[in-house]
């Protein structure tokens, strides 16, 4: 079966500290991978996506970076966290399911609080 | 662009009534749309999808309507139940190699007992 693992579930980090959130998928190969952020009471904003190993596209300028060292591993990082980096971070993947249609699966999310 | 940065509007309905949640999308080239339900502290949960060659699709208690002329989607929930209380997002798929999901601003549905 196809699953997605995202950890940790919650994280409290001081301003200026580094960040590493990891997401791995199972049961599929060569998925498209995505990182989203959701501020409290707001919608989901796409931060990064990847269509293959080492291929990262950034959607918004920010303090974060992403990497895809393996086909089914997607990492979100920061060298120095800002207060504004607080939010709910979601990893997702997609694969074709039918002609012209994609199946998307979301992780359970990481709630990051920068203090 | 992406519809983000707006505080979520709220729709309050009586249990048993029908709910209609509306959404405007941004990319006229989008070919595929999905409605998601998100409960507090969880990731989005797939509800129903629709292709651009359709204007209506029905699921169990839910119906999605698509009007490409005005770039508008709606989600209708029949006989709304307390368990339907959540935030609802529409999302459009950018049909390039990224297949990225771009979410609408979302609506919070509150079901009154």
Q: Can you tell me about this structure?
A:
The complex is a heterodimer of chains A (115) and B (113). By secondary structure, chain A is mainly beta. In chain A, 0% of the residues lie in helices and 63% in strands. Chain A is built from no helices and 11 strands. In chain A, the strands form 2 sheets. In chain A, strands 2, 4, 5, 6, 9, 10 and 11 form a 7-stranded mixed sheet that branches. In chain A, strands 1-3-8-7 form a 4-stranded antiparallel sheet, with no helix packed on it. In chain A, a hairpin with a 2-residue loop joins strand 5 (44-52) and strand 6 (55-58). The model of chain A has no long low-confidence stretch (mean pLDDT 91). Chain B is mainly β and 113 residues long. Helix content of chain B is 0%, strand content 50%. Chain B contains no helices and 10 strands. In chain B, strands 1, 3, 4, 8, 9 and 10 form a 6-stranded mixed sheet that branches. In chain B, strands 2-7-6-5 form a 4-stranded antiparallel sheet, with no helix packed on it. In chain B, 35% of the residues are buried. The interface between A and B is medium-sized, with 26 and 30 residues.
Question: What order do the helices and strands come in, and which of them pair?
Answer:
The complex is a heterodimer of chains A (115) and B (113).
Chain A: E1 3-7, E2 10-13, E3 19-26, E4 32-38, E5 44-52, E6 55-58, E7 65-70, E8 73-78, E9 87-98, E10 101-106, E11 110-114
Parallel strand pairs in A: 2-11
Antiparallel strand pairs in A: 1-3, 3-8, 4-5, 4-9, 5-6, 7-8, 9-10, 9-11
Chain B: E1 10-14, E2 19-24, E3 32-38, E4 45-51, E5 56-58, E6 62-67, E7 72-77, E8 86-93, E9 101-103, E10 107-112
């Amino acid at each position: 079966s196809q699953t997605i693992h995202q950890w940790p579930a919650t994280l409290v980090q001081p301003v200026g500290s580094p960040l590493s959130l990891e997401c791995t998928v199972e049961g599929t190969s060569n998925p498209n991978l995505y990182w989203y952020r959701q501020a409290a009471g707001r919608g989901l904003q796409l931060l990064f996506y990847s269509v293959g190993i080492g291929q990262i596209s950034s959607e918004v300028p920010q303090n974060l970076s992403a990497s895809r060292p393996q086909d089914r591993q997607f990492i979100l990082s920061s060298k120095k966290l800002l207060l504004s980096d607080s939010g709910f971070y979601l990893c997702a993947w997609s694969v074709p399911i039918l002609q012209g249609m994609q199946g998307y699966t979301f992780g359970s999310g990481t709630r990051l609080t920068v203090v | 662009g992406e519809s983000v940065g707006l505080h979520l509007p709220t729709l309050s309905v009586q249990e048993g009534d029908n709910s209609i949640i509306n959404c405007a999308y941004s990319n006229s080239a989008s070919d595929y749309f999905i409605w998601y339900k998100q409960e507090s502290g969880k990731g989005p949960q797939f509800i129903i999808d629709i292709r651009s060659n359709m204007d209506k699709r029905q699921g169990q208690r839910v119906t999605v309507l698509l009007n490409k002329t005005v770039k508008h989607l709606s989600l209708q929930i029949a006989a709304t139940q307390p368990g339907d209380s959540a935030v609802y997002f529409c999302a459009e798929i950018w049909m390039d190699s990224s297949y990225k999901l771009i979410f609408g601003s979302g609506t919070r549905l509150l079901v009154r007992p």
